[in-house]
Amino acid sequence: MPNKTIYVSDDDLKLFQRAQELVGGNLSGAIVTALRRFIELEEDRVEGYDEVVLKVGKDGVRQIRFSGALLTEWHQVGDKRVEDIRVYRTRKGAYAVHSHFSYWSEFPADTNILKDWKQWRRFLGVGEQDWGDYLFEVVDTVGELEGKIPDRLFARVVDITEHRVIEVLDI
């Protein structure tokens, strides 16, 4: 196997030593793992995908991570709840739906909108809420989204997937 020499500055030496400790002494293994991750993230970025980290579960206490491109989003404030829905195209070509439903009946009781003016945004449903149900589902095709998301949002997703988001005109 060919040898490669890597010169490390004195400032970065502690970083390499810590990596070697974490992998049990095999520094080349740590470097290869880091390079694979770096290449994967950069190739995703070049192709228009980002690392997406989303809250899931009751009140969003857990998180998930994947590579995806945001296609469209939906924000609706209603009498019973606030809905936030985002649809992503995943790196592998599937479609991911992240839904967040905040029911007014579950509005945190510890919120005092009369004393804290910043809570008015929360009360009025402005921005993403920090309570409620965070759901995540992945489907293989756009057609499988029908009935799972609002009709108007589904129409947007269909339009986005059938047409370029930005059409460059030579005029």
Report the portion of residues in β strands: 25-35%
Q: Which segments are poorly predicted (pLDDT under 50) over 5 or more consecutive residues?
A: none
SSE string, helices as H and strands as E: HHEEEEHEH
Strand tally: 5
Q: Major beta sheet, specifics? A: 5 strands, antiparallel, barrel
> Which structural class best describes the helix and strand composition?
alpha+beta
The total domain count is 2
Task: Look at the structure and give the mean pLDDT.
Answer: 85
Estimate the helix proportion, in percent: 25-40%
What is the number of helices?
Answer: 4
**Radius of gyration in whole Å, from Cα?**
22 Å
Shape descriptor: extended
Task: Provide the spatial order of strands within the biggest beta sheet.
Answer: 1-2-3-4-5
